[in-house]
Design goal:
Layout lengths: L4 H31 L1 H18 L3 H9 L3 H17 L3 H25 L21 H16 L5 H21 L5 H24 L13 H24 L1 H4 L2 H40 L4
Helix pairs in contact: 1-2, 1-8, 1-11, 2-7, 2-9, 2-11, 3-7, 4-5, 4-6, 5-6, 5-8, 6-7, 6-8, 7-11, 8-11, 9-11
């Protein structure tokens, strides 16, 4: 049945707050990595490190990136639809498909029409004024994970989040090995999916779809701790490299910058996933507390 007004107000505040946090982080990532000299030079160093590291596995990188295609997205839509049908939950199925569509469309619009990459007079590996943020490949892979989290029962979400998040992180690193994207592009892709997922969860809550069931402990506190640690390490290395140009521009500096990129990507995907799982959990808990009997 449709949720009561009290339950709706309580439950909707959580996805709204998380969407705001994701959006604010997106703006911060975009500004630092695109509009500041320090952000640009460290980002360029990490891309150089990725190209050096991935030179010997280029064929494997291409194979990994070929997995993400229009066909794979259609496959994700079909999978989501089947799970929703099995669970007799049309609202969640439509919301999950909405994440797949809106996240990928939003990424394309942001990258091609709304966001710009100004010329700061820097000598960079990639085209200095060609905006590549957010990463389309990262968004496509991660949106499939988010869609599954929406339609799956709570018991299966942690495993899917870990496996899917790892896959999405590998895709984002592969785009760096191929020279297509920078670190912030992947981080922005994760955050775009996060915002779209919070909107989808709000729709689910507003339509009264959340079901009453026991909530298993997800251990999300540790997800947040690991995410914060990885992000802090990545930022610390980046700041260090940005202040010591001779090291940053050396081979060792490029490799360190790439390791910093990997840490930032891992921290971002873990943090966004933790937010998704927590909001799904708390909105369903609110349903149990405030919802009307099924």
């Amino acid at each position: 049945m449709r949720p009561s007004n009290a339950r709706g107000l309580v439950a909707l505040r959580w996805p709204a707050a998380m969407a705001t946090a994701y959006a604010a982080t997106f703006v911060l990532v975009y500004y630092i990595s695109v509009h500041t000299v320090r952000g640009r030079v460290v980002s360029d160093a990490s891309l150089r490190g990725a190209l050096l590291s991935g030179a010997s596995i280029r064929d494997r990188v291409d194979a990994i990136l070929d997995v993400v295609s229009v066909g794979s997205l259609l496959g994700a839509v079909a999978t989501v639809a089947v799970i929703a049908l099995i669970r007799l939950d049309r609202v969640r199925g439509l919301a999950a498909v909405g994440v797949l569509v809106t996240a990928n469309v939003a990424t394309r619009v942001l990258k091609d029409h709304l966001l710009v990459r100004p010329d700061l007079g820097l000598d960079e590996v990639g085209p200095s004024t060609l905006n590549s943020l957010p990463s389309g490949h990262t968004t496509a892979a991660f949106s499939a994970v988010a869609a599954l989290l929406i339609v799956l029962p709570s018991a299966g979400r942690v495993a899917v989040a870990l496996l899917g998040g790892g896959f999405a992180a590998c895709i984002s690193l592969a785009t760096m090995f191929a020279g297509w994207h920078r670190t912030a592009d992947a981080m922005a892709g994760f955050l775009v999916v996060g915002v779209c997922t919070m909107v989808a969860i709000s729709v689910v809550v507003a339509c009264g779809s959340p079901r009453r069931h026991a909530q298993a402990g997800l251990g999300l506190r540790w997800w947040v701790v690991v995410s914060a640690g990885a992000l802090s390490l990545g930022v610390a290395v980046g700041i260090g490299l940005s202040t010591v140009a001779p090291v940053r521009d050396s081979l060792v500096g490029s490799l360190l910058a790439f390791l910093s990129a990997g840490s930032l990507i891992a921290g971002t995907v873990l943090g966004v996933l933790a937010g998704m799982l927590w909001v799904l959990q708390v909105t369903e808990s609110d349903t149990e507390r405030y919802g009307e009997p099924a």
